[in-house]
Amino acid sequence: MSNQKELLSEFAIPTYKEWRQAAEETLKGVPFEKKLITKTIEGIDLQPIYDESDRDKVKYLADSLPGSFPYNRGICSTGYKTCNWKISQAYSYPLPKMLNEALKNDLECGQDAIVISVCNCVALSPSLCGCDYEKSEWKDCVCSGVSINDIKDFEDLFEGIDITKYSIRFLPTCPVPLTTELAALFIAYCYKHRINKANVNVNFGFDLTPAIVRSGELPIPVEVLFDGMAGLVKICNRMQGKASAISIDACTYHNSGATAIQALSYSFATAVMYVKQLLHRGLNIDDIAKNIHFNISIGIKFFVELAKIRAAKVIWAKIIKEFGGNEESQKMKIHAFTSKVYMTKFDPYVNILRGTTEGLAAVLAGVNSLHIGTFDEELGMPSDFSRRVARNIQNILRDEAHILDTIDPAGGSYYIETLTDKIITEVWNAFREIEKNGGISNALFTGKIQDDIAAVVAKRNENIAFRRDTILGTNKYPNLLETPVDSVINVKPEEVTKHFEEVKARKKDVETKSIWSVKWDERIAKMIEAYENGATIADVYGTKPRTNDIKCKPIPIYRTAALFEELRFAANDYKTKTGKAPQMYFECFGTLKQYKPRADFSTDFFAIAGFEITMGQGFITAKDAISNIEKIDAPIVVICSTDDIYPEVVPEYVAELKKKKPSTKIILAGLPKDYVDAFKQAGVDDFIHIKSNVYETLKGLLQTIGAL
Fold it and tell me: Using an 8 Å Cβ cutoff, are 60 and 70 in contact?
């Protein structure tokens, strides 16, 4: 250390003021704030550099230790050294036997936890219990997962798997609030097979968020649902193991386009509502808190997402502390998912890279378990290959990248700790505002949350349309040689039908209506008895009390790439119908060095919408180009050159082109301000440049040729 000081003593260490002065000189008049300060979608200003003075402002974070309050550095004092994160991949296979095969394979190849996405929409069809969920508007876009109907389905799902060796997490993926019924069915399965419940590490995933947010309604009275939640918490506490009832789903908001601040504040407000309801039913805060886990999505903005998770731990510790919870209760359990918002259908292999950066952010933030989405999840159900790729990203992070060598390597970073503090402040203020105005229920039923998320989605779409935000392979740098992936698998409809016919054939005629007439803390025991006697989950759920009075505006799923994918799909359909892709011709002027920059820019601009481009040879004069007009066989012509050359060639060439081919759409690459009006008068229809609304321009062109 003394040698280092001696070496550094020979150099003058610049101050921040001196650095900023040098930076401003480099900018040559461009405002410092405009060029070097980045504003996130959350409205947070990211400074170009952070230093020790920033760290000194957040000592409560920077000087904390792993396993100690406020837990930004993790809830375990030894970090991943002894409390490694669980590789917890979830899959959307609809049949129990099909999911069983995938689980047995993956548990032998590095996965060390079981995550079960559950969807019972088909099971709750009119033919089974009189619930017409199967035809609901939201079904096709949100429902995916295995259908569990009776004890036999659980037997098929877990055949050959010792469930006491793995943590198990249930994920209700469709807006049907039947977690209590599912949990009772799982317990009945454990009873039948004499599995010691104290050895079962399971989270049942109780949360009303997916139901109300996606469908816009709760078909079950709130009191009945909270009674079920309280009953399940009591059952989990009596299991004397690692069973837990609740998993607050922040992913629902994230995957609707919400910001990090919004998703966390809404989720904490939801958690507080649950805590209050359970306290009202006589449970104590420590018994409640140990039953609450969080599902949180990790987006593509690496440092924001890393700081978001760290901030969440601090806020949850503060909330539980305010309720009087002990230190163990203050520790937040987080299951992380890579984001669905940024997944793309085109150039899907890029999703592997997205999943890697998102997964790394989650691990550096200290999550307890992690799901990395398969690269083809937006295209269908994953094959062994795509599951292996996703799983091995985590295996590489764990076994090859040496992330485990140091506990919380992000701790103490000037940037990360400052950003964490900023997110804490913003989330806390947003959370308090929700509480002040009646809580999460009021925010949803008045439409406040829906409107706030819609405003963010509009801003995201604007940034994508103008390419301020890049989606690789979708709104920038498209893969022009892309071929459809063949990694997804399909399930024949008749296989699903056969499964449900078998369920119907083996179900017994069991009376279930009386379940709902006993005290709330006795209902789960009655459900277990019904399942043991041969009832299905539809039998139990079908007699549950109903209401039509709980409604709000639903919030749709959002993906950033969907905007431009619409254009690519339209171009593909056009090619199928006409035999060729939408055509475009580039008329270039000057030497290659002169026209190539704008030709390259234009190629990237138009190719993302599926246009097939024919490149002109490059003419020196307008007269030379005019002689080539008759050979042009495209409805759209793009002129590429420099601003200096345009005045010499554009007016004469465009006038002649319009004369010979009046229906041709003429676009000029660039925006020569002094000549825009003159060029328009000559016949130029539009200009493309770095400030163009790329989406609207491309959409208009596809509409012009009849592709949209």
Answer: yes
Check residue 197 and report its DSSP letter: G
The first and second tokens of residue 401, run together, are 């990248």
Which residue type occupies 167?
A: S
**Local structure of residue 91 (DSSP, 8 states):** E
Q: What is the mean pLDDT of the chain?
A: 93
Length of the chain: 708
DSSP-assigned letters across all residues of 524-564: HHHHHHHHHTT--HHHHHHTS---S-EE--------TTHHH
Interhelix angle for 694-704 vs 562-578, to 10°?
Answer: 20
What residue type is 649 in one-letter code?
V
Match 């299951």 to its residue by tokens. 335
The DSSP secondary-structure symbol of 44 reads P
Nearest to 374, CA basis, from 344, 356, 403, 352: 352
Extract the tokens encoding 265. Answer: 């504040």
Task: Give Dmax over CA atoms of the chain in angstroms.
Answer: 91
Reduced to 3 states (helix: H, G, I; strand: E, B; else coil), residue 45 is strand
Q: Whole-angstrom Cα distance, residue 262 to residue 320?
A: 20
Residue position matching structure tokens 């740098």:
477
Helix (H) or strand (E) run with residue 593 in it: helix 592-607
pLDDT of residue 124: 61
Which tokens belong to 504? 């119907």
**CB contact at 8 A, 588 and 619:** yes
- Cβ neighbours of residue 388 under 8 Å, at least 6 residues apart? 109
Nearest-angstrom CA–CA distance, 298 and 336: 7
Residue 616's pLDDT is: 92
Hey, what are 408's tokens?
């919380």
Q: State how far the Cα of 241 lies from the Cα of 196, in Å rounded to an integer.
A: 9
Do 342 and 377 touch, CB atoms closer than 8 A?
no
DSSP-assigned letter for residue 34 = H
Question: Which residues are paired to 68 by β-bridges?
Answer: none
Lowest mean pLDDT among 137-141, 518-522, 696-700: 137-141
Using alpha carbons only, what angle is made at residue 78 by residues 168 and 317, rounded to the nearest 5 degrees?
70
pTM: 0.94
Structure tokens at 675: 């000549």
Instruction: Tell me the pairing of strands 550-551 and 583-588.
Output: unpaired
Cα gap 378→340, rounded to integer Å: 8
**Residue 638 · residue 602 · CB < 8 Å:** yes
Q: Which amino acid is at 291?
A: N
* pLDDT band of 6, cuts 50, 70, 90: low
Q: Where are the domains of the chain?
A: 2-36, 59-477, 562-704
Q: Cβ of 29: how many Cβ atoms within 10 Å? A: 6
Residue 16's CB is within 10 A of a number of other CB atoms, namely 13
Taking only the tens place, the pLDDT of each residue in 135-155 is 344 334 345 789 899 999 999
Q: Has domain 59-477 been given CATH number 3.20.20.240?
A: yes
- Residue pair 603/563 in contact by the 8 Å Cβ criterion: no
Q: Report which of 93, 81, 87, 78 is spatially closest to residue 143, judged by C-alpha positions.
A: 93
Residue 589 is given by DSSP the state B
The reply to whether domains 59-477 and 562-704 share a CATH topology is no
CATH code at 562-704: 3.40.50.280
Answer for the pair 420, 428: CB distance below 8 angstroms, yes or no.
Answer: no
Q: What does the alpha-carbon distance between residue 604 and residue 60 come to, in Å, rounded to a whole number?
A: 48
Query: Helix, strand or coil for residue 636?
Result: strand
- Nearest-5° angle of CA 71, CA 171, CA 448? 75
pLDDT per residue as tens digits for the range 310-363: 999 999 999 999 999 999 999 999 999 999 999 999 999 999 999 999 999 999
| CA 354, chain centre distance (Å) | 11
Q: What are phi and psi of 706, to 5 degrees?
A: 85, 15
The closest alpha carbon to 175, from 132, 130, 203, 142, belongs to 142
Count of H-run helices and E-run strands, the chain: 30, 18
Contacts of 533 (CB under 8 A, 6+ apart): 508, 510
